[in-house]
UniProtKB/TrEMBL annotation:
UniProt domain Endoribonuclease L-PSP/chorismate mutase-like: residue ranges: 7-146
PANTHER family: ENDORIBONUCLEASE L-PSP_CHORISMATE MUTASE-LIKE DOMAIN-CONTAINING PROTEIN, ENDORIBONUCLEASE-RELATED
Taxonomic lineage: Bacteria, Pseudomonadati, Pseudomonadota, Alphaproteobacteria, Rhodospirillales
Gene3D superfamilies: RutC-like
Recorded superkingdom: Bacteria
Official protein name in the record: RidA family protein
């Protein structure tokens, strides 16, 4: 990986994780023209979940925020794979979608998914600004706390 974004990652002390293989009948990303769709990423690090359980009950909002950041790191790893390792091919992050494993009375979804949004801004600057949704779900794959999907425009 070389270029401006690689240098920014180094400056931020960020090392992208290895890409995770799909856990079902889907692909990790699809490319249609210049639009790259990244499948939902969960907080896997070295083959293990970093956060499991419901945010607001088993996991604090702050831990959920950190969990969303891990999901975003996995998204960036998938984007790098789609771009042959060159994140400078990203024109901008168009949209993030965040799912928070929580109970019916939880309402801090935006604070949790900010962990992913803030990483996009740190890495891509102005090109990291995106549309977003942050919603609650009664359960997520493997009992994880957060799942995040993304859409990017490539140059």
């Amino acid at each position: 990986m070389a270029g401006i974004i690689a240098a920014r990652l180094t400056e931020l002390g960020i090392e992208l994780p290895k890409v995770a293989a799909p856990a079902g009948a889907y692909v990790p990303y699809t490319l249609s023209g210049k639009i790259l769709f990244v499948s939902g990423q969960i907080p896997m690090r070295d083959g293990s979940l970093t956060h499991k359980g419901k945010v607001g009950t088993d996991v604090s909002v702050e831990e959920g925020h950190a969990c969303a950041r891990v999901c975003a790191l996995n998204i960036l790893a998938q984007v790098a794979a789609a771009c042959g390792g060159d994140l400078d091919k990203v024109a901008r992050c168009l949209k993030l979608g965040g799912f928070v494993n929580c109970g019916p009375d939880f309402n801090d979804h935006p604070k949790v998914i900010n962990g992913a949004s803030e990483l996009m801004l740190e890495v891509f600057g102005e090109a990291g600004k995106h549309a977003r949704f942050a919603v609650g779900a009664p359960s997520l794959p493997l009992g994880c706390s957060v799942e995040v999907e993304a859409v990017f425009e490539l140059k």
